[in-house]
Design brief:
Blueprint: H1 9-18, E1 21-25, H2 34-44, E2 48-52, E3 60-61, E4 64-67, E5 79-82, H3 89-97, E6 105-108, H4 115-123, E7 127-129, H5 134-141, H6 184-190
Parallel strand pairs: 1-2, 1-5, 2-4, 5-6, 6-7
Antiparallel strand pairs: 3-4
Helix pairs in contact: 1-5, 3-4
InterPro entries: CoA-bd, NAD(P)-bd_dom_sf
Protein name: CoA-binding domain-containing protein
Pfam family, one: CoA_binding_2
Amino acid sequence: MTDALHYPDTFIRGILKTVRSIAIVGVSPKDNRPSYFAFKYLLERGYKMYAVNPGQTGKDLLGRKFYAKLADIPDPIDMVDMFRAAPYADGVVEEALALKPRPAVFWMQLGVRNDEAAAKAEAGGMKVVMDRCPKIEYGRLSSEISWMGVNSRIISSKRAKIMGGGVQRMSLNRETLAGGTTSGSAAAADEPKSS
């Protein structure tokens, strides 16, 4: 990884507000793994989740069937979230590009950056996010993590909509920002490089 990437909150919020179904490639059934946390969290926030891990085919994760590959998922997918190392990104992008309909977003998890794969996904019409976690971004943008004293960099006088019965389950329904109109590479390229 070379430079830190920056995506405007409007871009991330736009993605998380518009996608409905997410396939996590490389999700683990072990409940102490980050991929498991992300899967469970996003499932509890109302996303239709698909688990992709060829080593777990035939099993299920939180009531959702494991699939060996993206092409095995019988429904359209809005977003692919990749929990694999950067060298695998190209192959996963190829899989996503072959889907009909094609997913709108290709997301690479924290610590994962593959600029060539990102360029290929964007050339195929997908928005790309690298080196970010949708669970963390959702919590930050919905103000959930603010309840724990974490600086979310979000200042708003609008109260977040609470989902369900818990005070820490909030939605992204605040209409303070528009979003999702720029490509990930363009957004990252506009950010000054940190030294």
